Amino acid sequence: MDRVSLDVESRQTDSGVTVLAPTGRLDVAGAPALKDAVSEAMKNGKPRLVIDMEGVSFVDSSGLGSVVAALKQLRSSQGDLRLAAPNQQVRVVLELTTLDRVFPYYATVEEALSDF
User: Fold this and answer.
1) C-alpha span between 4 and 114 (Å, rounded)
2) Cα 39–44–46 angle (5° rounding)?
3) In whole angstroms, what is the distance from residue 116 CA to residue 111 CA?
4) Measured by CB atoms within 10 angstroms of the end CB, which terminus of the chain is less buried, N or C?
5) Residue 13: which of 42, 50, 38 has the closest Cα?
6) Would you call 95 helix, strand, or coil by DSSP?
C-alpha cells in the first residue's frame, strides 16, 4: 500500500473543542492516522473532541478500535468524544456492535458540539 487510506484534518472551535475530520477508509491502514490525530489534539490540553465522520467511506473493526481507544484516552483525561455525521455503513457497524450506545452520534458537527 503506497498511500495512507485516511487523511485527518483538525480544527479548534471557539469553545475549545477539537474537531477531527477524517477522509477515506477508517480501517487497519487508516486507524493509526486517527490515533495520531487524537494524540496530537490532546497535547493542546483540550480533551473535548468531535470526530466528523462525514468523509469516512468505510469502517472496520480496526477503525472502530481506534475510536474506542480515543474515547478511553479522552475519558482518562476527564474529556469526552462525540461522533458526527456517520454515513449509513458506519451507522450500521455502530449499531451491530452496539457501540451506538457508547457513542451517541449526531447528524451534524454543530449538533455534536452543542452537546458539550
Assistant:
1) 32
2) 90
3) 9
4) N
5) 50
6) helix
Give me 16's grid cell.
475549545
- Residue spans of the domains in the chain: they are 6-114
53: left (phi over 0), alpha (psi -120 to 50) or beta: alpha
Q: What is the pLDDT of residues 8-64, one digit of tens each?
A: 999 999 999 999 999 999 999 999 999 999 999 998 776 999 999 999 999 999 999
- β partners of residue 81: 49
| pLDDT of the residue at 2 | 41
| Predicted confidence (pLDDT) per residue in 67-98, tens digit | 999 999 999 999 999 999 999 999 999 999 99
Compute the Cα dihedral for 95, 103, 8, 12 and give only its sign.
positive
User: Quick check: pTM over 0.90?
Assistant: yes
Dihedral sign (CA 31, 70, 36, 111): positive
Distance of CA 75 to the CA centre of its chain: 14
Task: Report which residue type is found at 22.
Answer: P
Top CATH class of 6-114 equals alpha beta
